[in-house]
């Protein structure tokens, strides 16, 4: 099951499969580990010794968050699929990587991390000299502003937006029906957040400062899903927000993440 | 007089998170009371400090922030040389801290603050506790605390062997839950229980209690 689903359903329901290009194939568990280097085109993958391993699936928003950061940094990594349908994320050996039983987990040498937003921060910090700078350059005060908007995404935007994605998209994948009343209520809350973003983006090119940072990147996976639904109107009807969505989703690193879903 | 100002309420868990960090760093500050009953946090001039209309907001000599966990991190970095160490040096250690802070924010706080809301704050507003919700949330909290129990069996504090922001962020909500039947979930896990006793008995934790 996808990470969004985790937070909504305890315990996971029996899964009724719908034929959908978004679902992974039954041979998932026997697929070899996929090694990616962002320097090559998406296929065929080159065989390299990657010290960075990501355990997750390309459909998962939290996994996508981490993959986006890795591509922005031009880092080589290995994506190790986790068979969610078989409940692999709730069993050993995955639980040794993340006892909370949620994807993704990341290994870099002997360091193991989970929580996508901690992983991206580590990537930005540890590999600060490589690829794109994902934190506002400067002193503690400037870095703190990035932290404000990182927290805004995590605490104000994501709890609402990911529930909308769950209602509109993921419920359908598991044979459940969208609750239109819930969507309406959630959208009522999201517009208040997006009004604040509109005001912020009138003063700043990106959320935290005038360069693209993790604060913007963290939004990509859920926005990507919502832009494929009627909820896209909420983003498109606000000019600064609309422009910002176009900018961040047009980044080449993000295109590579989206490409992985097609493989 | 410039200097540090916190705009919030002394009973608010998010405000306390910031106040505890300031006490840990032995920093002088002014707590500016925001009248929540009057909706002051949903109006100007407060909205200029935090457009999301939530306390606390923070100012350090004209530099303004909101989101309690961003504020505590700023305090820990900017005043790294003062008071108690709240961080852990090196990018790998900081990654472990970042992970611990995310767990607190996403796994622990969402459940624990619902329990605080149901059992304490609802009563302030004349509403009744929904015991079904309490039961359901306690099951979730139990699972999180099982993970903490395992972690604290290997490490004195959540991120490493000294007290950091990761432990600090938990204190305000735990302080409230210790005054409710939910306390038993902490008591019945020995490592968690010892950790709770440790972090809530710190002088800075005591200072924020009314």
From TrEMBL, chain A:
UniProt-recorded Gene Ontology molecular function terms = glutathione transferase activity
Q: Matching PROSITE patterns, A to Z?
A: GST_CTER, GST_NTER
Q: Assign the protein's first listed, main location to one coarse class.
A: cytoplasm
The Enzyme Commission number assigned here is 2.5.1.18
Q: Per the database record, which ranges form the GST N-terminal domain?
A: 50-131
Q: Enumerate the UniProt keywords alphabetically.
A: Cytoplasm, Detoxification, Transferase
Q: List locations, semicolon-separated.
A: Cytoplasm, Cytosol
Could you tell me which residue ranges the GST C-terminal domain spans? 139-263
Q: Name one GO biological process term.
A: toxin catabolic process
Q: Specify the enzyme's EC class, one word.
A: transferase
SUPFAM superfamilies cross-referenced by the UniProt entry? GST C-terminal domain-like, Thioredoxin-like
**Looking at the keywords, is DNA-binding present?**
no
**Record family assignment:** Belongs to the GST superfamily. Phi family.
Q: Which protein is depicted?
A: glutathione transferase
Specify the species.
Brassica campestris
Q: What is the lineage of its organism?
A: Eukaryota, Viridiplantae, Streptophyta, Embryophyta, Tracheophyta
TrEMBL record, chain B:
Q: Which reaction does it catalyse?
A: RX + glutathione = an S-substituted glutathione + a halide anion + H(+)
Enzyme class, first EC level, given as a word: transferase
Quote the SUPFAM superfamilies the UniProt record gives: GST C-terminal domain-like, Thioredoxin-like
Under InterPro entries, the record lists: Glutathione-S-Trfase_C-like, Glutathione-S-Trfase_C_sf, Glutathione_S-Trfase, Glutathione_S-Trfase_N, GST_C, GST_Phi_C, Thioredoxin-like_sf
Q: Name one GO molecular function term.
A: glutathione binding
According to its UniProt record, the EC number is 2.5.1.18
Domain GST N-terminal intervals: 2-83
Q: Which GO terms describe its cellular component?
A: cytoplasm; cytosol
| Pfam families, alphabetized | GST_C, GST_N
- Residue ranges occupied by any GST C-terminal domain in the UniProt entry: 90-210
GO biological process annotations for this chain's record?
Answer: glutathione metabolic process; toxin catabolic process
Q: Write out the annotated subcellular location.
A: Cytoplasm, Cytosol
Tell me the keywords, alphabetical order.
Answer: Cytoplasm, Detoxification, Transferase
Q: Does the keyword Hydrolase apply?
A: no
Q: What PANTHER family does UniProt report for this protein, alphabetically? A: GLUTATHIONE S-TRANSFERASE F6-RELATED (PTHR43900:SF47), GLUTATHIONE S-TRANSFERASE RHO (PTHR43900)
**Sequence similarity:** Belongs to the GST superfamily. Phi family.
| UniProt name for this protein | glutathione transferase
